[in-house]
Amino acid sequence: MNYFNMQYTSGAAALGAIAATAIYYYLHPKNENLIRTWKAVGNVTKLHLHPLKSGRRLELTSADCTDVGIRQNPEDQEGLQLRDRTYLVYGEKNNEFKTARTFPQLLLVQMSVHDKDQIRLDAPGMPTLLFKVPTKLKNKELRVKVHQSEEIYSIDCGDEAANWISNYIHGDSTPGLRIGYHDGSMKHRRNILKIYKSFSIYKNLTNKSAGLYSDLSAVLLVNQASVDDLNDKLREENRVVSENFRSSITIAGEGAPAYAEDDWEWLKIGEAVFRNVKPCTRCIMTTINPDTGVRNPEREPLKTMETYRRLKNQKPNKEREIITTMGISMEVNVPGVIRINDTVYIA
Ligand SMILES: *[C@@H]1O[C@H](CO)[C@@H](O)[C@H](O)[C@H]1NC(C)=O
Ligand SMILES: *[C@@H]1O[C@H](CO)[C@@H](O)[C@H](O)[C@H]1NC(C)=O
Ligand SMILES: *[C@@H]1O[C@H](CO)[C@@H](O)[C@H](O)[C@H]1NC(C)=O
Ligand SMILES: *[C@@H]1O[C@H](CO)[C@@H](O)[C@H](O)[C@H]1NC(C)=O
């Protein structure tokens, strides 16, 4: 290649790069800061979808990351796709949500897709229940009270689902539990800032961070090395699995030693880009075995985590509290498909 050609080619390459950048900015006007140097730190090892809040996981090989959380990939699940934490159990009397914190056996309720318009519920000792995805035209709309008295939009799933879940938890249908559904409509997105902005550990949250019925953010990531490190500190009978931490994404890799995730800011996996918006604060739920629904009698692993995974939080009323963390809560900045074994990049 002569000098002219070389100049011409590098000129064309430069023009191409400028054009690509311009197209990128055009497509992602709000994400101009996403042109970064990415470093591979590990791989995706597990993708878990929890369609029912506090319910059992579905194990996926790929997932579609949407603004409000992961969803089954239409390539793997035709017709109807379940989305993370779109259903929840609530009390009929006061519309307050119920979780495995009070009813540990909820952890064994498996929700899955039956066909193109029916959801399936299974639990130990219960007949399978099929019900249609509720719609606001046919079912009652309400607001369910969750943490911090936040109220979130919901569509009731009907009497059959209500009787089924009440029978499973209470053995009869009288102390009325019901199931609510979030259709994901933008009109009903949460204003989490109103409630959480004044907590000191939540400074990086935005309204866009919110999931549907997740405690707070759209996606939770757990690093296997951190779980392994915790297990090294626990007696054998108290050891846990990553499933105790109910993440959507579990990762492992050479560049991801225990707790490295605490300091990551941006992550890229497959087509998707995420921002770490806060550490995930941990509660008694981590002490319940995810496969048996039985609580650890010694309150492990929380007791041990409280000794070395502590963070100070200052609440709006100036009250200080010590919180315990594991994993990171992420906001989805560029939605897209992610897969098991995808490389995890950080910047
Ligand atoms: C957050 O969203 C709510 C509505 O969903 C809106 O009223 C509020 O102004 C938003 N806050 C910010 C800071 O964007
Ligand atoms: C917010 O994000 C910045 C940049 O990643 C980080 O340095 C800071 O510690 C974060 N603040 C909180 C309270 O998490
Ligand atoms: C991802 O997994 C492959 C295969 O197990 C491994 O060779 C590679 O080192 C992993 N990547 C990172 C960044 O750890
Ligand atoms: C992930 O990679 C491992 C080998 O590193 C392989 O055994 C496994 O089948 C892969 N899983 C998927 C879902 O591709």
UniProtKB/TrEMBL annotation:
The keyword Membrane applies. The gene is LOC108567344. The chain crosses the membrane at residues 6-27. The keyword Transmembrane helix applies. This is Mitochondrial amidoxime-reducing component 1 isoform X1. PANTHER family: MITOCHONDRIAL AMIDOXIME REDUCING COMPONENT 1, MOLYBDOPTERIN COFACTOR SULFURASE MOSC. Keywords: Membrane, Transmembrane, Transmembrane helix. Residues 195-347 form the MOSC domain. It comes from the Eukaryota. It comes from Nicrophorus vespilloides. Signal peptide: none annotated.
